[in-house]
Amino acid sequence: MPTAPPKIDSQNTRLARDHGHLLQSPAWGELKSHFGWTPCRIALEASTAQVLFKQLPLGFSLAYLPKGPRLDWTDADRCQKLFAALHAEARARRAIFLKVEPNLWQDEAQAQIAILFLQRAGFTPADTIQPRTTILIDLAGDEDSILAAMKQKTRYNIRLAPKKGVTLRQGNRTDLEAFYRLSCLTAGRDGFGIHQASYYETAFDLFAPEQCALFLAELADEPLAGLMVFRSGPWAYYFYGASSDSHRNLMAPYALQWAAIQWAKRHNCTVYDLWGIPDAEPARLEAEFDQRSDGLWGVYRFKRGFGGRYARSIGAYDYVYNPMLYRLYRWRRGTAE
What we know:
Elements: H1 11-18, H2 26-33, E1 37-44, E2 47-55, E3 61-66, H3 76-92, E4 95-101, H4 111-120, E5 124-126, E6 133-138, H5 143-148, H6 152-163, E7 167-170, H7 176-190, H8 197-207, E8 212-219, E9 222-232, E10 235-243, H9 252-266, E11 271-273, H10 282-288, H11 297-303, E12 309-312, E13 316-320, H12 323-336
Parallel strand pairs: 3-4, 10-11
Antiparallel strand pairs: 1-2, 2-3, 4-13, 5-13, 6-11, 6-12, 7-8, 8-9, 9-10
Helix pairs in contact: 2-8, 6-9
């Protein structure tokens, strides 16, 4: 990893971003509707926003806009009109607050414009729901160039598993049971939160086969690792991964990740988002990853080897409609954490 974040607003990254994030797609809204959220899509001219509402006691709700809106932040008039519509909808549903997580990286040209607009509009910086910092792999070149950008040890691990008899295959819906068992093992071992089994099943039903693939690594029919990769236009996302406690020396997750990257490449994706590393500057990441295993630090040790570019979003911003209940919400969330 570099010691300083490079500029990330390359043509490929902008094209992928402008297509719209997967979390702003109607299918993602449908997925969340099965698990306690109510999606609401607002479209004004060329601007769109998908807000998710979570019902709270006494008729209140919270409003969350993940990785959106899709908006030209340089157009002040469109910004004002779209956010007026968002506020009207949120107030009609008695939202305590509206959380917005724009799909913008800190180094992008529109980032500071968006931050200034949000601050002037009464939003304040807040905790993110989605990982704020990630690694983006450029898929514009051929497979050899993608491999060449990786660390030598990662390339070695990618080739190790097949040499040791590990087979890789793209799974179907019936394989989600094995994937969920691996997810439970991973959650217990590494302290990660996971979704219920029906969440992965519903996601697969909504997005596969064109926008989602499940990959499994096996040794003599024993599942060693699993991975679910998604895509939206030219952007691919590594959302869910899991591995067994057995045969960890065979490095199956490395080969599996490469299979997912190849899948994204075949589907004409130009950016592969590894989706979440510790929210720290590159110099600190490199200085501490060998000593730390808490949070996403263990994940970073794995992901850093695949090359790519450090990317940090502008974060989340909250607009508060009910200050008293907002303070109570934040207090309860803090005690839960």
